[in-house]
Write a structure and sequence with these properties.
Radius of gyration of chain A: 38 Å
Shape of chain A: elongated
Number of domains of chain A: 4
Structural class of chain A: alpha+beta
Structural class of chain B: mainly alpha
Number of helices of chain B: 11
Order of helices and strands of chain B: HHHHHHHHHHH
Shape of chain B: globular
Bound molecules: protoporphyrin IX containing FE
Oligomer: heterodimer
Distance between the termini of chain B: 26 Å
Helix content of chain B: over 70%
Number of helices of chain A: 11
Helix content of chain A: 25-40%
Chain lengths: ~475, ~350
Amino acid sequence: METGKQKTFVDKIWDVFASVKLAAVIFAVIALTSMVGTVLEQNAEPAKNIRILVKFVGEAAAPAAYEFFSRLGFLDMYHSWWFLTLLFLFCANLIICSIDRLPRIWKLVTAPIHALTPDHLEKMSIKRTLTMKGKGGAADQVSASLKAIGFKPVQAEMDKDRQVYAEKGNYTRLGVYMTHLSILVIIAGAIIGVFFGFNAFLNLPEGQTSSVAYKEGGKEIPLGFDIRCDNFDVEYYGESDMPKAYKSWLTVLQGGKVVMQKSIVVNDPLTFEGITFYQSSFGTVPDSAAHGVAILRAVSKDGKSEEIQARVGDTFTIPGTGIQGRIVNFSPALSVDQNGRPFTYEENMTNPALYIEFTGPSQRFSGWVFKRLPRTWQLPDGNRVEFLNFWGVRYTGMQVRKDPGVWIVYLGCLTMAIGLYITFFMSHRRIWVNISEEKGQSKVLIAASAHRNRAAFERTIEKLAGMLAAGNKGGTK
Amino acid sequence: MNSSVLFGLSTVAYVFAMILYIAYLAFRRNQVGVIATTLTMAGFVAQTFAILLRWKEFYEIGQMGILRAIPLTNLYESLIFFVWCLILAYLIIEFRYRTRSFGAFVTPIASLVLAFIDISGMSTNIQPLVPALQSNWLLVHVMMSFISYALFAISFSTGLMYLIVKTEKRNDPSYIFWTVTMGIFVIVLAAMGLDYLTFKFAVKSQEELIRSYLFRASFRSGSGFVSVLSLAVAAGLLYGIWRYGGVLRKIVGSFDLSAETLDDITYKSIAMGFPIFTLGGLIFGAIWADQAWGKYWSWDPKETWSLITWFFYAFYLHSRLMRGWKGKKVAMVAVLGFVAVIFTYLGVNLLLSGLHSYGSQ
Ligand code: HEM
């Protein structure tokens, strides 16, 4: 920011955008408006937000308040024009501020360190003085000590003194710029995602195939391939109703040929040609008993076993015996209470059960067979019917996303992490050691500076002074 | 020996340490200070073992690998971990800066959190992980978030102490700021204590107390008289703190901590906390959300409040660069930053709803 000269209008605008003050204002405005955005539910039905507003302003004023916030775009604020404008101002601020300051910083970074007059050194923030006995060799000893603490020293001849100096970490001054740049990279990645990607969902019943996903509002998005749900299942912790995993077995097909197969769970999605499928929900198709195929394994007393697929109403035979089972009824989520009586958990297939009537040459019996209760698989006559699956009645609900910008966002995140590390944990450190010879002694002045974390560097200088002083006492160094 | 016994022991140790640290301030007896430090360290060791034991217990129940069994999956466990980080950070500061006075400000935070766990009656059971939480990112995300929260808590208390020692006149905005902030803390805690005493027997499920009974015993009472009385008492408390804040200034002023040291600790803990929060809280949180829900950022209340917190601290870092802001104004930003942290962690779970299943068990 030059002073004195008459400033043009453009200069003034530039100065505003180059100031940290504007950044502070924008931080504050984004933070405050976002708070409102977390209280009002975004993209919700009006009734929901009116109910929230009633709690703040009362029954009477709530509709007017709703109208007010709705006009200002607070009900979808992160996509409103003014929020995007704020983000734009934020980026402009960041870019202009960086351009404004970079030349000066760049000079500090690239200009090599040079010898300074003792007067200048006296003004440094970190200083130590000591004397070393003996003529000559002091400069070399200083160089050696500097090398020992990781610096690359340079020696120079002053008018009557010698000076040894070194610097480290001059590039760390750019850490702040890296951090700021990373924010722009992340925003760029997010914008690419918005323009070239999509967010959709797909509810796919077991056994069915789809070549499209659906956006909110029902718009179809072609995938460019087919996806089939082979199976969906929920795993539980033991016999409890605490879900352990939601799992879908998916197959990707191109031109009728299988090109990929994978089972997905909540934290492990499937990605094919840039489109990713995430396990997000599940449900039961209407009229499940009629649609579903029960998959059973019938095992006879003497160990003969056979896998069976049957619908409700079908009859099957237990291999090697004359016993026939007829599936009479199906329940999506039956369990037994303490008295052994069955009760249902509604439609969510928590514990599917089949009611099967068995008729044999000599006996008849019937009962419920539960998918998750293996003890119900055992028949009274020693044969067994294992209930493996009730297939074809559930759909898996998946988020379907394409986001070509996500890697740019991650790149930005990585840059930010490195930038912050450099900014806060590293620093540009410089040391000058001035040696003047007086009456057979070397008077040594150590002066140093660090652009941050001075206390830590002071300890290093302390160590250096200790090393020089120890060398002085006739150590082997 | 199971983990809850050890947790109980550490709680007792911290509460006694708090009393001793305050006594140390009042009487300046060195032995008292040494016992306070010893108790804090004993509590810390007990808590460390408790966390490890709980990890082992969780591992045996959860059946899903050692990393997934880290006890950081619900409100209870994460608050315990927060206290652990806070005490660790405090002990480091005590040894680095060779000062004990600060203990009288940190151990109360730890005791309050432990009391909050007890009062809210939140679930302390070990529960297996629901599918959304079965991610290795969870471990680093939650762990780093809480390390940064602990550092922010330190900066909050040093920032507040800085304001206390730096303000003299009662009409100074920063004096009003710290007395009001402290007043609100006291009032909210007192009101929650009342809720607890009144509704302890009425509530069955965890956190129902806070969800449906918050301030019902005071401000939001059915009886108009009680609410007006509570407001009057609250106003009286605020006035009292404002009127007699000078006493606190004298006490804090007599500490072996200069205003510069306080400012230095505030900055240092934010300078550590900010990058840790950025990486662990925001970036790893985004990666986790990306894998679990297919969106690295969805503006849900929890995420948005993390971002708000982040902006507060970015504001803090930049306000130090602005002319005329160094000192008291910057300290106020540090204090407000931690208010945002508290809301991000507790407010969003208890008052707003979100995608995050935290605390909803
Ligand atoms: C959320 C966005 C931002 C983040 C996370 C961020 C982060 C940082 C950090 C960590 C520092 C170092 C602070 C310190 O040394 O204590 C810094 C310094 C700085 N920031 Fe930002 N910043 C952001 C936005 C901005 C914006 C919009 C501006 C525009 C003016 C800006 C201008 C500066 C300047 C001028 C410095 C000082 C650089 C120096 O010391 O040479 N920042 N920023």
